[in-house]
Design brief:
Blueprint (H helix, E strand, L loop, with lengths): L2 H7 L4 E4 L3 E2 H7 L3 E8 L5 E10 H4 L9 E6 L4 E5 H4 L3 E6 L11 E3 L12 E7 L20
Parallel strand pairs: 1-9
Antiparallel strand pairs: 1-2, 3-4, 4-7, 5-6, 5-9, 7-8
Amino acid sequence: MNAHSLADRLERTRIGGDVDIDLRESIERFDLVDFPCETRCGSGDPVAGHWRGIELAALLDGVDADATHLLVESTDGFRVCVPVAKAIEGILAVDRVDTDFFPRGLPRLVAPSLSGTRFVRRVATIEGRRLPPSADPEDHEDLLLAETP
């Protein structure tokens, strides 16, 4: 699949926050990587997937170099606060290659050391945050779990 048709499948082509990301431009500019990833969902069950995307390290040049965490929020307000060191080994997925994945869940944060519950779908913003060692990153999150029956 070429870069244009891949970008055309995405719900949005821009991501805001500390870094203004034009997905169409980024797909053309950076090499897309195939990214098989196995992690665990909130229940502890293994979850495996084979994704294609842009390495986060390539996209995060504009994030404050002193940031310890990334605040990643979806279009529906789901927000996680993950350590940069864990997120940086992941990708911003723009495709899933092991299934007929519906593109409305893209772009998606995918990283092997994150729980599957932190794979933010429909990423809207990515911001760097410097948290002191005593801070609890969960205080910056909104996992919307309280609304689930």
